[in-house]
Structure formats: C-alpha cells, structure tokens
Amino acid sequence: MIKMAMNDGRLKYPLPEILILLVATVSRFWRLDYHSFWFDEAVSLKWAGAYPFNTGLDYTIPTTFQLVEEKHPPVYYTLLYFWREGLSLVGWEQSDIALRSLGALLGVVTVLGVILLTKQICGRPVALLTGLLVALSPVLIWYSQELRMFQPAVTFIVWAFYGLVMAWQARSIWPRWLWWLLTLLCFELALYSYLFSAFMLPGAGLALLLWFLWGERRPRAWQKFAEGVLTFLLIGLLFLPLARNAWLVNGNESTPGYLFGHFWETIRHQFKIATIWREKWPDPLDDVALCILAFLFLMGLLWPFIRLFNQWLLSNKIGDSAFSNHQHGHHHLSNTANDQRDVFIDWLNNRQRAILLVVWIGVPLLLGNLLLASNDAVFKEDRYHIYLVPFVLWAIAFGCHHLTRIRLWLGWTAGTVSILALLLVLPRFWTPSLLREDWRSAAQYIHHYQQLSPELPSASVTHINYTHLAMDWYLQPHYAFEDFPIFGLFGDPLTSNMIDDVIAPPLMGIVEYGSHTLWLTQSHLEGVDDDRIVEGWLRHTFPVVTEQYPTGVKVTGFALQSFYNEVPQLSGNIEYPQVELAPGLTLAACEVMTPNVRSLDERLHPPNGWVHLRLWWHVTGKIPSNYEATAHVINATGIWGKRLEREGEMVSHLPTSGWPLDQIVRDEFDVNLNPLIPSGEYLVVVGMKNVDKQTPSTETQSSETQSSETPCGTVLVTQ
What is the Cα–Cα distance from 633 to 597, expressed in whole angstroms? Predict the structure, then answer.
C-alpha cells in the first residue's frame, strides 16, 4: 500500500490540530440562530417528534424507510429525536441554537476525521492544510448550521473512509476487525441518513482493490482483501432493502434526462460548491479565484504524473551522458542513480495518493452523470453532493504541497490564497441577503400583535397547507390550538372558478369560529396558487391590517371584525384622546403597537422601519363626507414618517360615510419612516383628511380637507 510520509519532528505536538478544531468550532457555532428554521428544517423537527408535532419513532422509522411520504431515510431523524430528548432534560428542546448544535458538533467531528484520514495517506503537513480548508469550507459550515441530514452524512462518510484506511493498515486481526466494523457502521449510518451517500461506495471498494493490487501478494494481503470484500458485501446487503425502495420511488416519480447533460457546466458548478460557494464577487475576481483553485486541484491530482514524465526525460539525458562517460572511463554517476531511485519511490507513493483522490472524487461524479438518464434532478440542488467537498479540498491541499517541492514560497503562497478565498466568503452567510424562509420573524410579529390584543382572538392560515409545520414550531409553544388555531387549508392547484365552492367556505368558517384577525402566511405557492387567488379573495372581503415581508414568506393581516359596541380591552402603548377630528368622528383610542423600531428593518420589510398604528373611531353622528386618517412621526426638526398608503385598508372597504352610528370602528395601518431618521424619541400624531374634496393635483392639504392632528403616542427609534 501507500508508504506513509514520515512525521516531521517539528510538528510532533498537537497544537496545530487543536487550533484547526477551534477554528472549526467557532465557524460552525458562529451566530447559530441567525437564520430562522425554514420549511425543510421544520420537516426534520416533525419526523424527530418535536413539539408540537409529537411524531413517535414507531411511526417515523417505518414511514421514512418506505421513502414515499418522506424522501429521506430514518437515521438522521432518529439521531435528532434522541438529541432533542437529551436537550429536554435541561429544558432546551425548543431552542434553535441547542437543536442546531448537533449539526455543528458533527461538523467539527468531520474536520477531525479529515485530519486523521489525510494524515494516514499524505502525511501531517497535507492533513493540516486540508483540515483548515475543511474547517473554513463555506458549504460545510452552512449545512452544519442547518437541521438536515447532509452534514451528518458527510461526517459518517469521512469516518467510514478513515476506518477503511486504518483497517487496511492494521497488522493484527482484532484491531483490524474493529476498523472494519467502524467502516461498516459509518457507511450504514451515511446510507440510512442520506441516499446519495451510496455514490461513495464504489470508490471505496475500488480503493480496496487498488491497495491489494499495489501491495505484495502475501497471505496477509489476501486475508485483508477478503475481510474487506466481506465488509462491503455486508454493507450492500444491509443497504439493499432501502436501495430497493429508492429505486422504486425514483422510477415512479423522477423525470428522465440525458447522459452527461451540461457536463462541463455541472463540473464547474460542483467545483464552485466545494470551494467559494455563494460568493458575490465581481466576475473577473470570481473567475480568477476559481482558476487558481482549479489549478491547485489539478496539481494535486496530476502533478505526480507530470513529474514522472519530466524524470523520464531527465533519465534519458543522464543515460546518454552515462554512455558517453563510460566510453571515456568516467564512473561517478552511482549517486545520481540512487537519487533517481528515491525519486521513483516518492513518485510511486504520490501517484497512488493521486489515483485514490481521482477515484474518490471522479467515480461519484461519473455515476451521477450516468444516472441523469433516469433522473434529471441528480445535480439539481447544491447540497446533493457535498460529501465530495472534503476530498476536493484535500486535492487542493495536495496541490499546494506539491508546489512546496518546487519552491517553498510557492506552496505557502498557494495555501494562503486558498485559505483566504474560503475565508472571505463566510461573512456574507450572516447577512440579510442570505436569509432563508424567515418564519421566526413572521411568527414573532404575529405573537407580538396578539400579546397587545387580549380581546381580539386571531387565527392563521398557512398557504400552502404543508408550510404550517414552520409556523407551528414558532407559534404553538405560546398558544393552545383553541386560543390561536393554525389552519392549513389548500394544497392542490387552485383556479378562479373554485372560489365559491373550495376557497370561500373554509375561510368564512374562520369568521364563524370567532376570530377577529386572520393572518395569512404565503410561501411555496408555485404551481398551487400562482395568481394568489386566496389572498385576492381575502382582500376583496376583509380590510387589510398590515403586510410584512420576511424573507421567503409574505404575512398579511386581515380584520375579520371591524365594528364594536365599545373599545375592547387593550394593552401596550395606548392613548385615549377623545378628540373629534372630523364631523361625527371622534378618536376614542390610539395604539402605537410598535413603540420601539429601527430606522432600517432588514427582516420584516426592508429597507425602512415601520410604525404600526391601531385607531379606534367612535361614530358620534352622521358623517357628511368620506375621510381617511393621516399619521406622521415628528420631532422638533420636522416630519420623519408618514402613513403608508396600501390598497384594501379599512376606508377603501367601507368609506366613513357608511359607518354605522354609535359604533367603535377599528382602523389599522403602518407609518413609513424616513431611512435617514436619527435615533431618538418621536411623537406620533394623527389627523383626518376629507378624501371627497381632495383632487389628484392637490400637492398639500388645505385646512378645508385636513384636520388638525392630535398626539397618539411616542415611538423610540434606534439604528
């Protein structure tokens, strides 16, 4: 087998490894709760039996094994189930950080496995650089912070390969069988966590065959080879039932493509995923970085063969020179021959290392391109083949190592550039531009609203229906279903001719349920409600309370009840002006429902901050004209915010001239802040304008159309 590199005495202490693991830990635990759980992570929580889903393993394991209702097998969900059960002992089972720490820890374990694996084959210097690159890998950090099975599958694969290498190198039988057992266990965990892990099995089997062919045919080699074959047979047999289910599902549901479709585009994209994934640099810089990393990658795979060719040319020249010197009686080339023999041995080991990397990277890509004939989605998502990332980064580190053999400064420069290329991608991961479906912000807004509305019961419709999983996770811990029901009503494609029979009846049923406010959350509508028919019907039927736009989700509030006999019990920042602002209209109460806002809101409605107001008008007499509320945020220097005009609000549904006498009318809207507003406390003032006397050409409101404004409360603005 491969001759292992001798450890450098200067590197005998484990401090570099410890520092690399520290880097891996910091990068994977950094801002672990910045991103909300998105829909896919909510699915993981469902199958792991988390509250409020309460799915038991007796249901999860057999259901996910069939791969029909859920496309991923049960091991990761089972692991997450026990992780959550452990967290429940200290009351952390609902914590996003605590739950995600499982993936982060497995990410660190992956880095440790990569260091150990690479050290066994290429020596410590290559192992340290590979470990650092994997510790800083953007795609592996991202999926270490996600509650899904992709990072755990990478962890299991790395340790399966480490067990394979150690089993082949072990001399005595009992340690060797322990390593074979580790190989079998880790491969099965990977396969039963993520089906695409199977792409790595043929490469691992080929490595076993290559080691056997490269070694001497001694009885021990035959015995180890037989043990390895038996191990892989057991892996295959244990995987066979799941593989059968996967084949049946793939055959029934997949769309055929064609062999090696968009091959070079796919290879380039997969290489970018493994290196500078999700960078947003200018095109020239992006291309330069990819070219440098690709050059190092190819150096890692091809340099031993290039070096052999150069050595062959050199040996021919030396041979000619030796023949000439022999004719002239010179015999001083024995040292040169010895040097060439050492170079050949070194090349032989490097060639074998390079061939292993070619096999471990190339075989899965080859199989994936062949499978395109039956499934055109093999390379559809970036996460599908992240198990290749450690091996790609290993090849890059190996390329840097080869450069040090040419010029030391070349190798160090290449390694530094590789590290910086990965490192510079990372800060963008925790910025609004890469927010996923922000269900946490959506739920927090609704929860905050409901806390200020104790006598205004609410309900939520998650559209489409299966996205209720994410909303359930963030809202149900605060409310029982009877206090705040979350409905998932529509999952099949909707058309406009289905309004009366399919769409309207269940929505009107929510009114009969007694809810005063309905929160419609919309996500994943493609192919189900492309024309937003549900939202359109609600806008036509009920006044809009507010609209919020967290990433990947649209939240719209509708007032199912707008008329009251008296002002309900309220809580929060409330004023009771009791001021008549228009004939027959008295402002009975005014609520600043968001008394603390940021000047720039990157979560709910980028870029500006909004102040939400809820007004309660008392109809004291006949209203001769139609009016609309005005609102401004002011201080001594001037106006810093004004009402945000929005289609479908209260006065557009029912103009004030039609409001019933002696009723309390609920009227809600948002005030849009100037993004340059300085920090500080501001006064919110409210007035009324006569929209019947307003003309399109009116630039400012005259005293005839605009009432004086009255204080409504204060708002604290921060940056």
Answer: 12
432: tokens are: 């609004």
Q: Going along 121-215, which residue ranges are E strands?
A: none
426-453 tens-digit pLDDT: 999 999 999 989 999 999 999 999 999 9
Write the burial class of residue 206 (CB in 10 Å: 0-12 exposed, 13-18 middle, 19+ buried): middle
Q: Can you tell me the distance from the alpha carbon of 419 to that of 64, in angstroms, rounded to the nearest whole number?
A: 39
The enclosing H or E element of 475 equals helix 468-475
**Which amino acid appears at position 191 of this protein?**
L
Cα pseudo-dihedral 338, 342, 345, 346, rounded to 10? -160
Q: What is the pLDDT of residue 349?
A: 76
Distance between CA atoms of 650 and 24, rounded to whole angstroms?
A: 53
Our CA angle for 570, 617, 544, nearest 5°, is 80
CA R_g for the chain: 33
Helix axes 96-122 and 150-169, enclosed angle (nearest 10): 30
Q: How many Cα atoms are found within 13 Å in the side-chain-facing hemisphere of 286?
A: 12
- Report how far residue 149's alpha carbon sits from residue 133's, in angstroms, rounded to the nearest whole number: 22
240 is written with which tokens?
Answer: 């066979």
How large is the average pLDDT for residues 25-31?
A: 98
Q: Is the CB of residue 204 less than 8 Å from the CB of residue 363?
A: no
Question: Which residues have C-beta within 8 Å of that of residue 467, sequence separation ≥ 6?
Answer: 39, 488, 521, 523, 524
Q: Counting beta carbons within 10 angstroms of the beta carbon of residue 261, is it exposed (0 to 12), middle (13 to 18) or buried (19 or more)? A: middle
pLDDT over 80 (residue 161): yes
Candidates 514, 540, 572; CA nearest to 653 is: 540
Residue 387 pLDDT > 90, yes or no?
Answer: yes
Structure token pair of residue 270? 């997969």
Residue 186: what residue type? C
CA distance 434 to 428: 7
Token pair listed for 628? 């609309």
The neighbour count for residue 479, using CB atoms within 10 Å, is 16
Name the amino acid, one letter, at 400: C
Q: Which residues pair with 559 in a beta bridge?
A: 517
Question: Is pTM beyond 0.85 here?
Answer: yes
Angle separating helix axes 263-274 and 334-371, nearest 10 degrees: 110
Cβ neighbours, 10 Å, residue 377: 14
Taking Cα atoms as reference points, which of 424, 434, 412 lies closest to residue 38? 434
| Tokens matching residue 26 | 């910091």
Check: CB of residue 136 under 8 Å from CB of residue 426.
yes
Asked whether 136 and 425 are in contact (CB, 8 A), the reply is no
The dihedrals phi and psi of 655, each to the nearest 5 degrees, come to -60, 155
Strand 458-463 and strand 517-522: the pairing is: parallel
Tell me the HSE value of 236 on the side-chain side, using a 13 A CA sphere: 11
Q: What is the 3-state secondary structure (H, E, C) of 162-180?
A: HHHHHHHHCCCHHHHHHHH
d(C-alpha 44, C-alpha 55), whole Å? 11
Q: What residue type is 257 in one-letter code?
A: G
Q: How far apart are CA 155 and CA 79, in angstroms?
A: 13
Question: Closest Cα to residue 172, out of 204, 131, 220?
Answer: 220
Residue tagged 């070079």 (tokens): 264
Residue at 511: amino acid letter: V
Mean pLDDT throughout 625-639?
94
**For residue 54, how many other CB atoms are within 10 A of its CB?**
9
| Closest C-alpha among 319, 377, 440, 455 to residue 195 | 377
Sequence-ordered list of residues with C-beta below 8 angstroms from that of 236, at least 6 positions apart, any chain: 201
100-111 residues labelled b (16+ CB within 10 A) or e (exposed): bbbbbbbbbbbb
